[in-house]
What does this fold into?
Amino acid sequence: DVTIANETNNNFRQWLVKHSTTLPIPDFSVQVINTLYWPSFMRLDTLVIPETMHTNLSIFKRFYDEATSSRKLSWMCTKSTAQLDVNLNRKRYEFVVPVDQACTLLLFNDCDSIEFGALASRLGLLPAHLEKSIEPLLSGRHKLLRKCMRGTEGSSTPPQVFIELIDNFSAKQVHIVVPSGLEKPSEKVALSIQKVVSIDRSSQMDATIVRIMKARRHIAHVALLTEIMTQLAKFFKPDIALIKSRIEYLIESEYMERDQHDSNYYNFRN
It folds into this structure.
């Protein structure tokens, strides 16, 4: 998926030049993953993103819709990152944060504090999601925000929670990476997902090889590799070593065999 993403981004850059289109945020890349092989991530479809971000996404969608008519894009903001140039206490910092945190921080361009409920409403998030999203900014190693209670003493109205920007923030590092506050899969779950993906891709590769062999009956090794790569490219970037290992597996399973007169050819076995 990473290799395919690089190719997609290169094609997108060429498409921008061809259509004389400029992105509001020039440093922009997209990694398209196939939901058949990846777990379901938490989605924040209601997240209100800045207009410049929205324009970038819309332009990429135009390109992608032209290139692939049978696929639908769904944006995973919780797995996306943004770099913000932040000027605090007479010093410039580069914060790399998840997009949901970026949207939060950008609201503080016009004010120093925002009431928590109002902040959730402006972002289009449930309070529980906002609480989890900004937790690393409130109590992380690089604390950039803080909570405070405001109310009139003796008033029957309960105090309100405000989120404030810490204007005297200071850090030795200029480039600061802030982790996501949303739940991450454990190492055990991640390994399990990787195993499932590997099994699914091996099964799909086996089916592709058998289908090609059944149609061609007799084929050269190089031609078989080319056809496998071509057919699977729309789903994922197959590894040559894995293809060779699956061919060997299918030979052992007697779906196919090497030609007795030329080992560079394969025959399909009925």
Summary: DSSP finds eight helices and nine strands in the chain. The helical segments are 2-18, 51-67, 99-106, 116-123, 127-139, 187-216, 221-232, 240-252.
